[in-house]
Amino acid sequence: MSEENHATVAVTGVTGALGGRIAARLAEHGVPQLLVGRSPDRMPELPGAQRRGPAAYGDAPAMREALEGASTLILVSGYRTGRRLEEHATVVEAAMSVGVDRVLYVSLVGASPVATYLNARDQWATEQFLAGAGVRHTVLRAGWYSSTPAALADEEFVVSGPASTGRAAFVTHEDITEVITAVALDDRPRCEHDGAILEITGPEALTLDEAVTRIAAATGRPYRFETETLEEAFARRWRLGMSGVQIETWISWYQAIERGEISTVTDVVPRFTGAPATPISDAAWWPEPRTARGVR
Ligand SMILES: NC(=O)c1ccc[n+]([C@@H]2O[C@H](COP(=O)([O-])OP(=O)(O)OC[C@H]3O[C@@H](n4cnc5c(N)ncnc54)[C@H](OP(=O)(O)O)[C@@H]3O)[C@@H](O)[C@H]2O)c1
Predict the structure, then answer these.
(1) How far apart are CA 213 and CA 225, in angstroms?
(2) Ligand 1 centroid to 76 CA: how many Å?
(3) Where is the signal peptide (predicted)?
(4) Is the distance from the beta carbon of residue 16 to the nearest atom of ligand 1 less than 6 Å?
(5) Which residues of 88-125 are buried (b: 16+ CB within 10 A; e: fewer)?
C-alpha cells in the first residue's frame, strides 16, 4: 500500500525490542511514521520515518513537539520508575493537545492493581487513565516473551525461581508485533478495537519446566528449570548482590506464573494475523544466558 493511504503514526520505544520491531513492520507497510524517544541517534533509519526528539515520556513540551503531525500514537510502556503512570499520562496528554486522535497502548498481560508481578500493576494504572482520558484508544497487553526464560538462565543454563508447576502462555516478540501492526493498520474512523483490551498470548500455557525443556531442544543447549522455595529464591539473589527492588520484582515474575496469572491463552494472534501463534520451540531467536535486565 502507498504512504498516501495511511495517516501518520508516532511510535515510542523504537530503541527497544518491541517498538523497534513495530516501527520496522509499519515501514514495510508504507506507513508514514514519527519515531519518538530520548535518543534520536539510536533510532533505526526507516523509509517514510522521521526521527523526533529527544523527548522523554515525562517531558511534556518535548513530547508535544515530537508528536506534532501524528494521527495515531503507539505508546510502548516505559520502565517501572515509580512515576510510570505520570510519564505515560504526560505522553497521552501531549498527544491529545497536538491532535492525535487514537492511542494504542502497549501494556502487559496480567495488568491489574493486585497483580502478583509488580511490573504489571502500574500498567493497569495507565489503562485506567486512558479509559478516562477521552481519547479513542486500544490497550494491547503483550504476553510474556518466549525468550525471557533463556535470558534468565545462568551460565550453566539453569533457570531457578519459585514458579513450581504454574503455567504461562509465552509469546514471541514477532507475534506481538504482528498484532499491534494489524491494529495500527486498521485506521477506519471507528472500529471494534476502540476501547478494547487485547491480550496477546502464545498458543499454549507451559510450565517453566516445559518451556525450558523446549528451549533446550530448540537450541541444543542444556537448559533446565529448578524450582525454588521463596526462602531459597530470596537468599540466592541476595548473595548474588541483587538490590531489594530487583529481588522483589523478579521473584514476583515467577510467583505470577506459579499462581496462574499469565496462563490464559487467547485467540488474539490468530484472529489478527491469520496464522496460529508461534510455539516457543519455533521462536526466531534466543538471547544469551544472564541477559534479562537486572535478573538472576
Ligand atoms: N512482554 C514481556 O515479557 C515484557 C518483558 C519486558 C518488558 N515488558 C514491558 O514492555 C515494555 C516494552 O518492552 P521492550 O522489550 O520493548 O523494552 P525495551 O527493549 O527495554 O525498550 C523500552 C523502550 O522504551 C523506551 N523508554 C523507556 N522509558 C522511557 C522514557 N521515560 N522516555 C522515553 N522512552 C522511554 C526506551 O528508550 P531508551 O532506549 O531511551 O531507554 C526503549 O526504547 C517494557 O518497558 C515493559 O514495560 C514486557
Answers:
(1) 8
(2) 7
(3) none
(4) yes
(5) bbbbbebbbebebebbbbbbbbbbeeebbbbbbbbbbb
* Domain presence at residue 142: yes
CB of 122 closer than 8 Å to CB of 89: no
Look-up: residue for cell 494521527? Answer: 71
Pocket of ligand 1 contains residue 80 by CB under 6 Å = no
Which cell numbers hold the place of 201?
498470548
- 57 DSSP 8-state letter: T
CB-ligand 1 contact for 145 (6 Å cutoff): yes
281/283 Cα distance (integer angstroms): 6
| Closest approach atom of ligand 1 to CA 176 | 1
Q: Residue 104 region, left (φ>0) first, then alpha (ψ -120 to 50), else beta? A: beta
Domain that holds residue 193: 3-146+171-201+265-273
Residue 197 maps to a domain = yes
Q: Domain containing 80 — which CATH number? A: 3.40.50.720
Buried b (16+ CB within 10 A) or exposed e, 9-44: bbbbbbbeebbbbbbbbbbebebbbbbbbbebeebe
Q: What is the number of the ligand 1 atom nearest to the C-alpha of 144?
A: 3
User: Per-residue confidence of the chain (296 residues) as pLDDT tens digits?
Assistant: 444 578 999 999 999 999 999 999 999 999 999 999 999 999 999 999 999 999 999 999 999 999 999 999 999 999 998 999 999 999 999 999 999 999 999 999 999 999 999 999 999 999 999 999 999 999 999 999 999 999 999 999 999 999 999 999 999 999 999 999 999 999 888 889 999 999 999 999 999 999 999 999 999 999 999 999 999 999 999 999 999 999 999 999 999 999 999 999 999 999 999 999 999 999 989 999 999 875 43
